[in-house]
Every structure is written in structure tokens, then in C-alpha cells.
Amino acid sequence: MSGFIEEFYYGNIEPQACNTELNKGLKKMLSALVEKEELLTAKLNGKEKDLFSEYVNAYNEFLAFSIADGFISGFRLGARFTYDTFVESEN
User: Fold this and answer.
1) What is the DSSP string of the chain?
2) With the C-alpha atoms ordered 8, 65, 58, 42, is the resulting torsion angle positive or negative?
3) How many CA atoms lie within 13 A of 74 on its CB side?
4) What's the CA gap between 56 and 39, in Å, rounded?
5) 81 exposed, middle or buried (CB, 10 Å; 0-12, 13-18, 19+)?
6) Cα–Cα distances in Å, from 89 out to 77, 79, 80, 86?
7) Integer distance in angstroms from the first to the last C-alpha of the chain?
8) 67 φ/ψ sector (left φ>0, alpha ψ -120 to 50, else beta)
9) How far apart are CA 28 and CA 44, in angstroms?
10) pLDDT tens, position by position, 38-79
11) Is the pLDDT of residue 33 over 80?
12) Cα separations (Å) of 6 from 14, 45, 63, 70, 87?
């Protein structure tokens, strides 16, 4: 047994590391987001700044979970397409 699935099983392929280069559109959006966060953080004081920081951290956790969930859903959909392509339906 060799190939992509075996490499994936043994941890030699990391899906999150496959595409780390952001395209121009994403870079532009990220830059705008960082700029707005910096402007907002500069205007906040004390508890407001702490609350905003907690919000950003909570949102980042949600986003990470959401991205993982999207990856899993996409992987399952791809597996269903592959299964349907190679396994004849009994109907």
C-alpha cells in the first residue's frame, strides 16, 4: 500500500499547510481587517479594550472551528462523489 492515503494516514500530509499563500483579494481584506482592529483598539480603554480582546479571541476560536467544519464537510462531499463515481448503484 502506498500513495496519497497512506501518506495522509501517517501524518505526512497536513491539509492546513497545503496552501498557506493568500491570494491578492484575501491579502487586501486581511490588511483592512488588521487596520480596523488597530484603529478600534487605539480608541478603547481599560475594560472596553479587554472586552474587545475577549471578543476577538472568541471569534477566532469560532472561526477556527467553522473552518475545520467546512473542511470536514467538503471532504465528506468529495468522498461521496468518489464513491458514487466508482460504486455502481443497486437501484
Assistant:
1) --SHHHHHHTT---GGGS--PPPHHHHHHHHHHHHHHHHHHHH--HHHHHHHHHHHHHHHHHHHHHHHHHHHHHHHHHHHHHHHHHS----
2) positive
3) 7
4) 14
5) exposed
6) 17, 15, 12, 9
7) 32
8) alpha
9) 25
10) 999 999 999 999 999 999 999 999 999 998 899 889 989 999
11) yes
12) 13, 52, 29, 23, 21
Q: Cell 469560532: give the residue.
A: 62
- Residue type present at position 20: T
| Contact between 83 and 27 (Cβ < 8 Å) | no
Sign of torsion over alpha carbons 51, 57, 63, 68? negative
